[in-house]
C-alpha cells in the first residue's frame, strides 16, 4: 500500500525542478528498468511493481539490486506514472554524474536545443547503436531524465554519457577538432566518412543557432530527392551517423 | 458556435470505425492543413478555426478551398481535437482512393504491421523526402488516417500513395521484382544500391512476419557498432532508404 506522501514524492519527479532538487528520476516499464539496473550507471533506490511482475522478475532484479521491492496495485501504479501507457513497474534511480569528454579520435554528437523528449530518447538509442559514447547537449535541450526520454532510450541511457553545457564555449575549447553542422546546402553526407569530429544537430523547427552555425568547419546535408520540407530530427541524426561511421 | 451534434460527429472521426463509415478524416494544425489543401489529393469539406487563425490565413486557404470556414472558440476546438497539443484549426477531409502501383523501375516501401502512429507518419515523411511515391502496408498496419499519423506526416500524406493489402499475395504478384527484407544478419546496407525493388520493414517489436521473410530475395542490415538492442522502426527506415537511393 502506497502512502499518500510517497505517491506525491514520486509524482513530483515528473517535473525537472523536483528531479534537480532530489537528484533522482523515475523509469517506467520492465525492459527499461532491467537495462538500467544492468548498466550499473545509476543507483536504484526503490522498485515498485505489481505482485505478478515482481514474481516473474525477482531473480533478474536481484542480480543488480539489493534494495526494497514494493508491491503495489495496478491502480496505484497508474496514479504515480508519468507515461500514459500503463506499465507494471516503476523504479526510482539517482542521477549519474557526467563524465568529462575527451573528444580526440572519436565521433561526438552535439545537440542544439532538441525539444521533443521522444526525439532525444531516440537519438540516445541511435548513438548507442553506432557506438557513439558521448552526447553533448546545449543547456536548453530537453532534460534526459524526463520520463518520456528515459522510456524512449530503451535502456541506452545507461550506456551513453550525456553532458549539458554552453555549447559555443565547449566547441571552441575542443579546437582543432572539427565541427560538422547538419544544415541545408552542405556537403552530401554520402561523401563524408570520419573517425574524429563533432557532429552538430539542430532544433526540430529552427535548426542550428546562428552563433553555432558560424563555428562549423563544414556543413553536411542529407540529399533530398523528393518533396518533404524536412526530416524528423532523430531520423536525420540516424541517417547522418550511419553514413559517417559505417 | 459549434453544435453538440457536429462536435460529436467530429469526435467520432477520432476512431477508425467511424472514419471508415463516413469516408472522412480530420487534420489538425495550420501547417498540415495548408499542405494537404495544396496537394489537392484530398477534398476538404470544412475548416474550423479560431478567428485569429482564419484572419491570418484566409488568403492562403482560398487558393485551394472554396467551402465553409467556421469560426470557433479555442475551448470548443480543444473539445473536438484528437491531439493533446492544442491547435488553432481543424479540418475535415474526404479520404482519397489509392492508386494501383506499377513497381517496375522504382523503389517501393512495404510495411509489415507498423503499429505506432508516430512511426507511420514519420515513415511517410521519409518516403516523401527520398522521392518514394508508394507505400504498401499490410492490412494490420495502423490506419494512415489516424489523427497522430496525419499530424506526424507534416503534409507528406498528400504526396505519397498509400495502399493497404494482403502483403504476401501482393509481393508474389510483383515477381520477378526483388524483395529486400530489413532483418538481422543480412547484407550490409552500405553495399546495397538499387533503382528497383521492394523494401520491406517489419513491426516495431516483432520484426517481419515469418511468411513474408521467407519470400525475401535478400536480407539487408544496418551494421551495429555499439550496444543498443534495436533501432526505432522509422529511424531504421530512414537509414536504409538513404543508403539504397542516395
Summarize the topology.
Two copies of one chain form a homodimer.
Chain A: H1 4-12, H2 16-22, E1 24-28, H3 30-39, E2 44-49, H4 51-62, E3 69-71, H5 74-80, E4 89-94, E5 107-111, H6 117-129, E6 134-138, H7 147-152, E7 161-165, H8 167-173, E8 179-188, E9 197-201, H9 210-213, E10 218-221, H10 233-245
Parallel strand pairs in A: 2-3, 5-6, 5-9, 6-7, 8-9, 8-10
Antiparallel strand pairs in A: 1-4, 2-4
Helix pairs in contact in A: 6-10
In words, what does this structure look like?
The structure is a homodimer of 246-residue chains. In chain A, strand 6, helix 7 (147-152) and strand 7 (161-165) form a beta-alpha-beta unit. In chain A, helix 6 (117-129) packs parallel to helix 10. Chain A is of the alpha/beta class and 246 residues long. Chain A contains ten helices and ten strands. The first copy, chain A, folds into two domains: 4-94, Ribosomal protein L30/S12 (60s Ribosomal Protein L30, Chain: A), CATH 3.30.1330.30; 107-245, Alpha/beta knot, CATH 3.40.1280.10. The A-B interface holds A 118, 122, 125-132, 152, 154-156, 159, 188, 190, 222-232, 234-236, 238-239, 242-243, 245-246 and B 118, 122, 125-132, 152, 154-156, 159, 188, 190, 222-232, 234-236, 238-239, 242-243, 245-246.
Amino acid at each position: 500500500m502506497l502512502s499518500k506522501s510517497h505517491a506525491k514524492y514520486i509524482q513530483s519527479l515528473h517535473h525537472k525542478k523536483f528531479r534537480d532538487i532530489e537528484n533522482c528520476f523515475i523509469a517506467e516499464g520492465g525492459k527499461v528498468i532491467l537495462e538500467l539496473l544492468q548498466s550499473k550507471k545509476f543507483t536504484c533506490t526503490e522498485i515498485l511493481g505489481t505482485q505478478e511482475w515482481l514474481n516473474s522478475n525477482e531473480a533478474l532484479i536481484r542480480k543488480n539490486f539489493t534494495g526494497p521491492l514494493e508491491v503495489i496495485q495496478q491502480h496505484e501504479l497508474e496514479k504515480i506514472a508519468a507515461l500514459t501507457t500503463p506499465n507494471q513497474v516503476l523504479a526510482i534511480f539517482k542521477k549519474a554524474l557526467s563524465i568529462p569528454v575527451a573528444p580526440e579520435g572519436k565521433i561526438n554528437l552535439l545537440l542544439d536545443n532538441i525539444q521533443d523528449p521522444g526525439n532525444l530518447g531516440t537519438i540516445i538509442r541511435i548513438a548507442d547503436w553506432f557506438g557513439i559514447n558521448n552526447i553533448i547537449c546545449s543547456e536548453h535541450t530537453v532534460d534526459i531524465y524526463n520520463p518520456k526520454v528515459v522510456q524512449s532510450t530503451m535502456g541506452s541511457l545507461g550506456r551513453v554519457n550525456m553532458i549539458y553545457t554552453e555549447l559555443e564555449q565547449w566547441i571552441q575549447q575542443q579546437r582543432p577538432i572539427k565541427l560538422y553542422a547538419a544544415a541545408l546546402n552542405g556537403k552530401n553526407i554520402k561523401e563524408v566518412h570520419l573517425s574524429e569530429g563533432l557532429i552538430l544537430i539542430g532544433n526540430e523547427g529552427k535548426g542550428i543557432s546562428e552563433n553555432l552555425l558560424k563555428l562549423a568547419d563544414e556543413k553536411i546535408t542529407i540529399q533530398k530527392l523528393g518533396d518533404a520540407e524536412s526530416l524528423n530530427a532523430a531520423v536525420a541524426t540516424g541517417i547522418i551517423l550511419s553514413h559517417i561511421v559505417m
